[in-house]
Design a protein that fits this description.
Two copies of one chain form a homodimer. Chain A is an all-alpha fold. Chain A contains 15 helices and two strands. The first copy, chain A, has one domain: Farnesyl Diphosphate Synthase (Orthogonal Bundle). Chains A and B meet through helix 2, helix 4, helix 6, helix 7 and helix 8 of A and helix 2, helix 4, helix 6, helix 7 and helix 8 of B.
């Protein structure tokens, strides 16, 4: 899918801002090339879907108490995502050598440095969320959301389930639980932090947005599994066919390609419905709707 | 050194509280044995010096706004320390098989699980710091302090310097920079978070306590290097002589054993002076003084 002109127009300046902020906030001078390895892992790559979700959600809610807080939440989330990729690519995990079209961090900098770079990216995420100036309540709330989404009942837990099931069949229910944690938790967290920056932490709008984030996260993973089968490494910027090769359970292996594709479309419908259920006027929701279409129709 | 009866009496109930809190807060039911690996890494072991520092500092300042906040800061710091040990022991780092008298986490659970357990322990630290109830300003401040102390300008940065200098001589100044980050940052953070829980974030008392924390951290590392040479694995609960074997620069290799020992004593004097410089009455400082003596005179 080519991006819609409206979404492109919204995205481009924001992608530039995110890149500039990350460039500013990841200190190249950090000791013994650690900053270099971290920058290599984060800069110049990735779709930046998670930061965009933070920004689009904050904007849908009439923007936030502070642009700085939104940008920090957006970048912190991207740092967590980037660290997870660095560790996930290591030889003791997926042992992958290609990521975002470049050699993976451990190939480029060695395993020990990759381990430390991932660790320090996680720390930096929480450092970004807590500058001296700013609304302490929003900061504490974003830290809580991000920590939970990253941890054992979030991304790390999902990866542990993944590890434990290589070469095994999983029920669709278990597969969904795995992905809800492994990929879904961070995408949901993007929506939650965007809402938190806009002062929301409960109520019907919050809950509808949570349902939106959960559904979008699931759709994202189903599409990821489909692309692993239907796309090639060049387009993906990472090794294609990897899941099948590693005998990992996926939605495609569980449902078949056609049904997986159809389910992704069904999830998109549900995500749009959740946005409608927020009761917000249609106009501020447009970007979240466009992002949803992009997630489901993307080719990499 | 045997612990003084006064320190023992102060420590024992607090060590029990820390153990109970960690036991409660690290969820054994987390997916696919991840919670088990994390509990294995943290429970039933370690001196708990860092949590004790948090508690002793908060107490020295007339105790804190909330006992819960102090306990959470204490345990969060211990989780960061524990995660760093898990990752540091992995084959791509120090490749150690013995820690706290037990097989290391990757020996017991496999490398992939050890990697994830370390990652999730770091997330859990920030989750502990940010419960829904509580003073948001203290929470945000503790997150900021802990993130900075853990990251590339703290512990992770110190480990990167360490990695980069295996087999090389270092100047005493570089060695000090490395340890200020690698070990010192978390010990200092214990003092800082204890003070933050008691409502301090600046002023002469804060700065004197920072100097105390820095000096204590340095003393701790000098003693660690001495013990690596003079003690045995059974007493240490980890492999002795490891630094020399790995050709790591240490204070002993830089200064010689006698001078390193003498310097540890000198640092203890400076730490006590910093406590005096807080201007606080002597009585509430007693426990911090006792902890300082313990750090310098410990045998493991």
């Amino acid at each position: 899918m080519s991006l819609s002109p409206a979404l492109l127009e919204w995205m481009q300046p924001r992608l530039n801002q995110v890149e500039q902020a990350l460039n500013l906030w990841i200190d190249a001078a950090a000791p013994a090339q650690l900053g270099q390895a971290m920058r290599y892992a984060v800069l110049d790559g990735g779709k930046r879907l998670r930061p965009l979700l933070v920004m689009a959600t904050a904007q849908a809610l009439g923007d936030a108490t502070s642009d700085d807080a939104v940008m920090r939440a957006a970048c912190a989330l991207e740092l967590i995502h980037a660290y997870s990729l660095v560790h996930d690519d290591m030889p003791c995990m997926d042992n992958d050598v290609l990521r975002r079209g470049k050699p993976t961090v451990h190939v480029q900098f060695g395993q020990a440095q990759a381990l430390l770079a991932g660790d320090a990216l996680q720390s930096l995420a929480f450092e970004l969320l807590t500058p001296e100036e700013g609304d302490a309540a929003v900061q504490a709330r974003c830290c809580a959301l991000l920590a939970r989404a990253s941890g054992y009942w979030g991304m790390a837990g999902g990866q542990a389930i993944d590890l434990a099931h290589v070469g095994q069949r999983m029920t669709l229910e278990n597969l969904q639980q795995m992905h809800r944690l492994k990929t879904g938790a961070l995408l949901l967290c993007g929506v939650q932090m965007g809402a938190a920056c806009a002062g929301f932490s409960q109520g019907p709008v919050w809950h509808a947005l949570e349902r939106f984030g959960q559904t979008l996260g699931l759709a994202f993973q189903v599409v990821d599994d489909v692309l692993d089968v239907t796309s090639d490494s060049m387009t993906l910027g990472k090794t294609a066919g990897k899941d099948a090769q590693a005998e990992k359970p996926t939605y495609v292996s569980a449902l078949g390609l056609d049904k997986a594709q159809a389910w992704a479309d069904e999830l998109a419908v549900q995500a749009h419905q959740a946005l409608t259920d927020t009761g917000l006027p249609e106009e501020p929701l447009i970007t979240l709707r466009e992002l949803t279409r992009w997630v489901v129709q993307r080719k990499h």
